[in-house]
Amino acid sequence: MSEQIPQPAPLPLTPQEERQWAMLAHLSVLANLFSGILGPVVPLVIYFIYKDRSRYVAYHSLQALIFQLIWWVGGWMLVGIAWTITGALSAVLIGLLCLPFACIFSLMPLVALVYGVYGGIQCNQGADFKYWLIGDWTRSTLTY
Question: CA 111 to CA 68: how far, in whole Å?
């Protein structure tokens, strides 16, 4: 019979390391500028690597992931739909009325980019940052 050797518990992160990884999870929104939609992969990887070592990093990486999925990926889908409808209806003059809304929806990914960078800066400074509407829900899912 082989005896199981117990695995040592992962070492917790230092407060500086926690702030650094939380900041990187939020700043991963910048990866969307170069890759299109790979930004959510970064906080997902950070979450799986550090979820057992830091509740703070787990919270911020999961929050950044959900935020990016909603505002970046969902935002681009909404922009595409808005411009498709505007283009189709512009032949009937109604699309011209939709044009301002399509322009406003086009700003959603840019707003997400700025908000993600702001979250990264706040985490690096040690603030308990949470995204509007997403932060509380994310915190409630991490009760373990």
Answer: 11
Region for 127 from its dihedrals, namely left if φ exceeds 0, alpha if ψ lies in -120 to 50, beta otherwise: beta
- Nearest CA to 130 out of 68, 143, 138, 50 is that of 138
Q: How far apart are CA 50 and CA 142, in angstroms?
A: 13
**Four-residue CA torsion sign, 58, 54, 131, 80:** negative
pLDDT in tens, 46-86: 999 998 899 999 999 999 999 988 887 788 888 888 888 87
Predicted structure pTM score: 0.72
What are the tens digits of pLDDT across the range 111-127? Answer: 888 888 998 988 888 88
Domain ranges of the chain: 15-128
Question: What is the H or E stretch that residue 121 is in?
Answer: helix 108-124
